[in-house]
Amino acid sequence: MQKTVTFGEIMLRLQPPSYERILQAKSFDATFGGGEANVAVSLATLDMNAAFVTKLPDNMIGISCRNELRKWGVDTGKIVFGGDRLGIYYCEKGASQRASNVIYDRAGSSVAMSSSEDYDWNSIFEGVDWFHFTGITPALGGNMPEICEQACKAAKQKGITISCDLNYRKKLWSREEAKKSMSNLCQYVDVLIANEEDSESVFGISAPNSNIEGGELSKEGYISVAKQLCDTFKLKKVAITLRKSYSASINGWSGMLFDGKNAFFSKEYTINIVDRVGGGDSFGAGLIYSLLNDKSSSEAIEFAAAASCIKHTIEGDFNICTKAEVEALVKGGGNGRVNR
Amino acid sequence: MQKTVTFGEIMLRLQPPSYERILQAKSFDATFGGGEANVAVSLATLDMNAAFVTKLPDNMIGISCRNELRKWGVDTGKIVFGGDRLGIYYCEKGASQRASNVIYDRAGSSVAMSSSEDYDWNSIFEGVDWFHFTGITPALGGNMPEICEQACKAAKQKGITISCDLNYRKKLWSREEAKKSMSNLCQYVDVLIANEEDSESVFGISAPNSNIEGGELSKEGYISVAKQLCDTFKLKKVAITLRKSYSASINGWSGMLFDGKNAFFSKEYTINIVDRVGGGDSFGAGLIYSLLNDKSSSEAIEFAAAASCIKHTIEGDFNICTKAEVEALVKGGGNGRVNR
Amino acid sequence: MQKTVTFGEIMLRLQPPSYERILQAKSFDATFGGGEANVAVSLATLDMNAAFVTKLPDNMIGISCRNELRKWGVDTGKIVFGGDRLGIYYCEKGASQRASNVIYDRAGSSVAMSSSEDYDWNSIFEGVDWFHFTGITPALGGNMPEICEQACKAAKQKGITISCDLNYRKKLWSREEAKKSMSNLCQYVDVLIANEEDSESVFGISAPNSNIEGGELSKEGYISVAKQLCDTFKLKKVAITLRKSYSASINGWSGMLFDGKNAFFSKEYTINIVDRVGGGDSFGAGLIYSLLNDKSSSEAIEFAAAASCIKHTIEGDFNICTKAEVEALVKGGGNGRVNR
Amino acid sequence: MQKTVTFGEIMLRLQPPSYERILQAKSFDATFGGGEANVAVSLATLDMNAAFVTKLPDNMIGISCRNELRKWGVDTGKIVFGGDRLGIYYCEKGASQRASNVIYDRAGSSVAMSSSEDYDWNSIFEGVDWFHFTGITPALGGNMPEICEQACKAAKQKGITISCDLNYRKKLWSREEAKKSMSNLCQYVDVLIANEEDSESVFGISAPNSNIEGGELSKEGYISVAKQLCDTFKLKKVAITLRKSYSASINGWSGMLFDGKNAFFSKEYTINIVDRVGGGDSFGAGLIYSLLNDKSSSEAIEFAAAASCIKHTIEGDFNICTKAEVEALVKGGGNGRVNR
Amino acid sequence: MQKTVTFGEIMLRLQPPSYERILQAKSFDATFGGGEANVAVSLATLDMNAAFVTKLPDNMIGISCRNELRKWGVDTGKIVFGGDRLGIYYCEKGASQRASNVIYDRAGSSVAMSSSEDYDWNSIFEGVDWFHFTGITPALGGNMPEICEQACKAAKQKGITISCDLNYRKKLWSREEAKKSMSNLCQYVDVLIANEEDSESVFGISAPNSNIEGGELSKEGYISVAKQLCDTFKLKKVAITLRKSYSASINGWSGMLFDGKNAFFSKEYTINIVDRVGGGDSFGAGLIYSLLNDKSSSEAIEFAAAASCIKHTIEGDFNICTKAEVEALVKGGGNGRVNR
Amino acid sequence: MQKTVTFGEIMLRLQPPSYERILQAKSFDATFGGGEANVAVSLATLDMNAAFVTKLPDNMIGISCRNELRKWGVDTGKIVFGGDRLGIYYCEKGASQRASNVIYDRAGSSVAMSSSEDYDWNSIFEGVDWFHFTGITPALGGNMPEICEQACKAAKQKGITISCDLNYRKKLWSREEAKKSMSNLCQYVDVLIANEEDSESVFGISAPNSNIEGGELSKEGYISVAKQLCDTFKLKKVAITLRKSYSASINGWSGMLFDGKNAFFSKEYTINIVDRVGGGDSFGAGLIYSLLNDKSSSEAIEFAAAASCIKHTIEGDFNICTKAEVEALVKGGGNGRVNR
After folding, report:
1. Enclosing H/E stretch for A91
2. What is the DSSP letter of C74?
3. Does the pLDDT value for residue D225 go beyond 70?
4. What pLDDT, on the 0 to 100 scale, is given for residue B209?
5. Containing domain of residue D284, as a range?
6. Using one digit for the tens of pLDDT, what is the confidence trace for C242-292?
7. What is the phi/psi pair of residue D266, to 5°?
8. Does A103 contact E59 at a Cβ distance shorter than 8 Å?
9. Which one of A141, B180, D119, E57 is CB 3.0 to 4.6 Å from E62, fit for a cystine?
10. Is the CB of B317 inside 8 Å of chain D's CB atoms?
11. Strand runs (DSSP E) across D99-248, as ranges?
12. DSSP code string of A2-50
């Protein structure tokens, strides 16, 4: 089995039950999530060997987080324990015209405060085929940009494929900081996942006449963005997720994979949303899985889009679904008939 | 009041709360359900005298099941207690492109292991007007095909109308077994309820050029299926449910009644689904109710379709709704204004 | 900060969880609500000084209700304690073709049995800018019509703007009683909120060829109704809510404001409904807020419609949302992207 | 099977979950209960034929209540539907030094407003062996004292044994009213159930030097009270429940049966309380069951005390337990070993 | 009405439902609490005018916290909004031999990072009679020791009575730091609340031969500690809580008040614990209430002990109980009879 | 780290929330448990390398069970997938005089129907130090007695220490069957765990004058039983759990270890029970842990008794507690003071 490693922050996700607002809540559903951890769980549920690297506080909250990852089959053996706290994000689910809200309370987390000494990349990357991180990891500040580069260098040396999801978070760093760090890190990256909005925010790369709020980019626009990214950073592949935000309840969803030459668009799903957080991460995992398993570009983008379509119907950050379910959707399922 | 009897298995239904997947569940909502029991509850809530016949284990689970039926007004006086266990089915509710999943754990149930001696049909059918069962009952195996035939014979002798819902379950028996048993039993049946898929699976009776997955049968196709069934088994009436599975969240729903000569199609409802399990059973009950109350064919199919439309908005197997609610929908309600 | 006073009944709202029917419920979610209280909470969450006047029983239920209002920032200092009970309404949430049901159990409530002596309007209206009540308040019977008139007179004397939401409740009084009382009270009113259905029920004022059940009134029809109301009662403004009830799950929603001369229609929202109870009240509050803050007629109706659109996505009677959220929707939000 | 009838009010019981106070509650657990209904359910779960007579509102709340009784096997065929509302009681569970609180909201209930014409006692008492009511029923006011007397007379004429639980409720009537009514009704009673506190409140009958708050009455005191009651009303039997209220969490519990000559004391249980509401009613049912089944006085009091001991460990008003469980406790169980 | 001010941190309290451990939790009950806020809520529910001063983040979590305080009647008008986050504490409820666990995640909270400029003590203390804080407030670090002293000085100048609960938290500061700060602040204090353990930890003041773990201090020992504290800091009064920790489920609880000359011991309660967090705070509030209302020393200690006894039976940090309930317990209640 | 293997059945445990009875339940809390799995989880949470061997159905229920074990750190790599179903047990929690009830629905489970080919003991026992099973495993019938013997033989050959918990289940097999099988298997066993009741049931070995129901065996009696067991089966050690069942809410609990020569009794705990299921298994795990870590007999029995004391305070079959918590209790904790 091929081995993957993802590296980043995982947080406690606190969410009022159902459609309650935070101001109405008397309890919070407690799950865990974070871009790179979500990818690891997706890969593990797709039966890959998926290690997640992070630093967790050595208390019941940190251990609970580790246990949850372990439950889904993630290899947690390289997780470091120490530091002060697990970051938190409060998530309020939107509906119809009311948007979902996320409040981050992640400053001072064990991983954000971690140091280079915490991670032995040589050991971590032993026998590994793929390394994935997102733009959130360096954005955590402290030593994290440096640590990310150390990880990338170590991976590169071992010939490991590196993927990165741009994932710009404006509350974590400025566009300038992001551009500087990500431009540096992208030189190690083989496969970049982005959307047109982040591409514009971080690198100033956009398509002519794009209108992002409305989600109305033309196919040509997406291809143009992908091409520019490819050229700028010498990437092998660029994947873009295409979300049409009709409302908090209904979205259009598809993806595009550009292999340096050609662009492949997946079919588009109109989704009644259960939980859209982690949609992009499940797309990334679907893509990594596909590429590691030698699917063609067109198969890969269909698999990634279908996997992430299913994610939108599942509560929590994690895409708890099987390979068979994704494949069934790719093959034309999705009509919702009961499996008896 | 006219009396009905239904006979079959009722199971404990275990379902994760809300849209949780089984792999995420920490508790299960516990209800009871099964094709024939669902029909009995529907008839009872429509103020009919509805007895349900089955065998339940003589423990708290079996008694709990009996009590639940009693709560909804079903006559439970003919239920036999004994045997080892109540069958279970785990039900995971789907959403959008993710289908609902059902896992059966019903082998060895008290009713499936029951014997002819458990049921005194002469006494059970005392003063009864209508007998209903489904294809699931003989599919339970053991002595059940034989017992079903004994029930049919006893009903026939007393001049009781017999209806059957074809309900093919591929996990319970093969097409060959189903065909053999159901062909035999259908000779006693007056009113057959089916859908085109089951008709094809069990009897090989289909319309030309049908495309069942997509739910795209033409009106002529349904009429053709009904006519063939009528002719083959000398049925008085055949009713077909017409489901358009757009997704696990949204379905089109209507019904057709063929009275041997003419076909009557109900209006079609586009439904935001709360729970579609038991939809067919509520249709059957609506039909039985209508026919027992001398509604015309066109009224009957509208009533049955409206009743089962409402079922899709109600949690659990049972169609907990009143005659007045069904009639209001038939008369053009369904706009969802609040009844104050 | 400008001060508002609303006067009326607040009830305990008991609702089965999720989409359960009352007949299935083993617990009730317990919130509080009532037309005028809902307006007060909306105004308070929009950062207005909002007092609510009522009479509550001096027991844990009444105190719980007071505390809940206090929580949302409503000024509860003028609430009178005494009498026998808090009125209750049971609310069963509908879905798709199944309508929501409301069962009132409000007879004999402390406020319905209250007397003129309970309320010192001179003190209550000290420094107040706006007084709001609805047609439900006089419909409670007993001394309430008289008390409403006393309140209106006292408000008028102090030069306070008075608004009224027609809100006809056929279970509380007949059309004749309503017409008599409301015709009398409307002479004090400056701003009337109504829908075409209530206008017809109470005053017999309707547009030609209207079809209310279907919600198909033409723009001209609404203007005609507003104009007639304005002329009949010498109103300054009339606002009308325009609901298109497609089903219990999906509604169209917009509003119209007529300023005596011109009519202003808001944009129309297609809403996936979470809870539509209190929709009209949140519209009223949005309107009052806008007019007190010198918005133009066209701004006011957009703000009111957006505020009440958001209400439909929030559980409970109260519109728990901020000014910023409403303004964002007015400005073209509503696409449901996550606020991170 | 011998038949029993009980007559009185059943209410909706609303209780915050777990040990929450009403002021903290965001939902209420919803069950049903009332002295005579509790007795009926107990008798039905002890496999007796138990009819309950009352009047319920013809809405979903009333039907829900009927269905719940039906679930437990109570014969609900003689329940009358009509009137305005189901009475409610809010119940807050105490713990340790904090007492449980009950808030009644029962005025104007369908049964309290019912009239003599609602009940056809001749038909109700057809084939009945035992009639039971409590002091709460006449205390409901209106026509209820008169209706109770009509019931008692009809029962007497048919030779039916009559039992009454004194159950004084100071919020429903004064001592004087209670004395007048109960003295009249007690002339029909064969078996009176009381505790020393109610005996004192209603009839002024007490033991010398009793200290009720502390629960410290001597055996001689209880016998004296029973004897006086027997003599005053020509009763055949008097049963007294002996509660030692150490705290809201721990009680001592036993009972005494006086057969006119001799007094029989049950063993005393020290109980970790789950829910003590309905404890007295389950005692009454245990006694009625025992006497109808020809147990000796000493067996009867042990059975009644054991049944009601178990009630204290069960949530809700109803004593959901089997004959076998009661008998096992009588025989020396109660050590709490797991039944595997 | 007399006015009180308390100053300190309030946190979000996250607790697994019932007796679940953190490692088992899938949701957290969410309440708010903190020593000084708990005192403010207690005083407000005892109908005092109680202001709480703190700094909260200006997001939905901070506003939710403010709203909750407002719900209970606390004056929140002096709360400052700003800073980064609300502190959190995870609380796992123990049972029997398993202790409760608290995990603090409070570093970097808005209040801990606040500056002198955030608080205008002259305005805050306008018309105030009593100022209360605990040893936790200066222990938060940053500018808090200095701000506490500023508050004390301002209070002293206005002749406001000052009370302090020693509340040593070893995770917040060392014994040395605590001694230095608290020795300084205690010179402003009139009434000190402590237990023998904290007295020893902070000031090294203890009774001869004390055995704190076992809770076995003699009456003389407690008096000795109080006397030493009084003498050292020129206090008017010292109150000590006396907890006997038999297990996490059962505690003995009483209090002692030393008025400089005489010591008054309350009666001792044996408590079946629902939630013991906040027990000391409710004691402090009971004491402040008593002293502000001119109760005698012996009445005051009984009231304080009874109030805090009740707190142990209530979920959450806050002592949601009425004056009447406390007084009833003082007068000999606590037998747990139902209040009907 | 030393490695352990346990082998047996794990079931889905379905339990009504809180103290609800099965007849009242509308949902079931869903956990997993079974004697040998419980031991494996305990060992894993004590930081041992603990593999659990069983056969699970290859569906979402079986995978969910595997994931749960994985979450707690159990090595699930040797679990076999296949067969028809996961066994179930319904568990109703008792209180006070009402006993807990367990209903087994385990017939036909994947593990009970498994064959010798399913388990490759040579591979399973690679590098293993300790093998543990209980009397339940052979009692499952089918090939299980034979498979157990194969496992024992393989373990013996590799010099692995073997422990067995007698655990007689009368619903699974007769005393005669148990005696035959267990006598055979015990010849391989080094450490036997039993209680006096099972010893009597299976082997007819008892102490003179024992009174098991009352839990009143003398120390000498226990020693006599242990000695007889040791002698009969050439055991190295016998451990006995000593439960005093005062009620379903309160138990006395201690243990005894007999090393062939001397008997060591632990201290006795009086426990307020949260959940006593799995108490014996946690004792076994504590013992295995102690013996594998070279604790003395007296230390070992104290550790085992303390570990299982804590289990009684934790919901579910699994003893989710840390080594540090057990050690703290051994050292004199248990007073329930909050760990802050």
Report:
1. strand A88-92
2. -
3. yes
4. 67
5. 3-330
6. 999 999 999 999 999 999 999 999 999 999 999 999 999 999 999 999 999
7. -80, 170
8. yes
9. E57
10. no
11. 101-105, 130-134, 161-165, 191-194, 237-245
12. -EEEEES--EEEEE-STT--GGG-SEEEEEEE-HHHHHHHHHHHTT-EE
C-alpha span between C13 and A5 (Å, rounded) = 51
What's the CA gap between F316 and F32, in Å, rounded? 8
Q: Do residues B201 and B211 touch, judged by C-beta distance below 8 A? A: no
Flag whether pLDDT at F127 surpasses 90.
Answer: yes
CATH number, domain of E133, equals: 3.40.1190.20
Does residue E63 sit at the C interface (CB-CB below 8 Å)? no
pTM as predicted:
0.97
Burial of A212 (0-12, 13-18, 19+ CB in 10 A): middle
Average pLDDT score over residue span F294-309: 98
Show the tokens assigned to D27: 């939902």
Measured between beta carbons, the chain B residues lying within 8 angstroms of D68 are 71
Q: What ipTM was estimated for this complex?
A: 0.95
Given a contact cutoff of 8 angstroms between Cβ atoms, the answer to whether F38 and F52 are in contact is no
Mean pLDDT across E285-304? 98
Q: What is the pLDDT of residue A216?
A: 57
Largest CA distance in chain D: 54
Identify which of B285, B32, B35 has the alpha carbon closest to the alpha carbon of residue B166. B35
- Find out whether E51 and E78 touch, Cβ atoms under 8 Å: yes
Cα F151 to Cα F242: distance, rounded to the nearest angstrom: 29
Taking alpha carbons only, the member of A232, A153, A158 closest to residue A185 is: A153
In a domain, B338, yes or no: no
Residue E234 tokens read as 């020129």
Residue E216 burial class via C-beta count within 10 angstroms: exposed 0-12, middle 13-18, buried 19 and up: exposed
Q: How far apart are CA E34 and CA E15, in angstroms?
A: 14
Of chain C residues 14-43, which have a CB less than 8 A from chain A?
A: 18
pLDDT tens-digit profile of A273-329?
Answer: 999 999 999 999 999 999 999 999 999 999 999 999 999 999 999 999 999 999 999
**Could you give the 3-state DSSP secondary structure of residue C151?**
helix
Cβ(E290)–Cβ(E46) below 8 Å: no
Q: Are F58 and F64 in contact (CB under 8 A)?
A: no
Q: Per-residue DSSP letters for D16-38?
A: -STT--GGG-SEEEEEEE-HHHH
Classify residue C229: in a domain, yes or no. Answer: yes
Mutation choice for A interface testing from B98, B102, B243 by most A CBs within 10 A: B98
What is the rounded average pLDDT for all residues in chain A?
95
pLDDT of residue B210: 58
Report if residue D244 sits inside a domain. Answer: yes
Give the H/E segment covering residue F225. Answer: helix F219-233
SS3 at position D211: coil
Chain segment C56-98, per-residue pLDDT in tens: 999 999 999 999 999 999 999 999 999 999 999 999 999 999 9
Q: Which helix (H) or strand (E) holds D6?
A: strand D3-7
Q: What is the pLDDT of residue A52?
A: 98
pLDDT confidence of residue A211: 56
Q: How far apart are CA A111 and CA C8, in angstroms?
A: 54
Phi, psi of E89 (to 5 degrees): -130, 130
Cα gap A246→B58, rounded to integer Å: 54
The residue-averaged pLDDT of E32-46 equals 98
Q: How many domains does chain B have?
A: 1
Q: Are E62 and E302 in contact (CB under 8 A)?
A: no
Contact yes or no for C72 and E67 at CB 8 A: yes
**Could you tell me if D271 and D251 are in contact, meaning their C-beta atoms sit under 8 angstroms apart?**
yes
Residues of D in contact with F20 (CB under 8 A): 315
How many angstroms separate the CA atoms of C40 and E233, rounded?
A: 51
| D336 belongs to a structural domain | no
Contact yes or no for E100 and F314 at CB 8 A: no
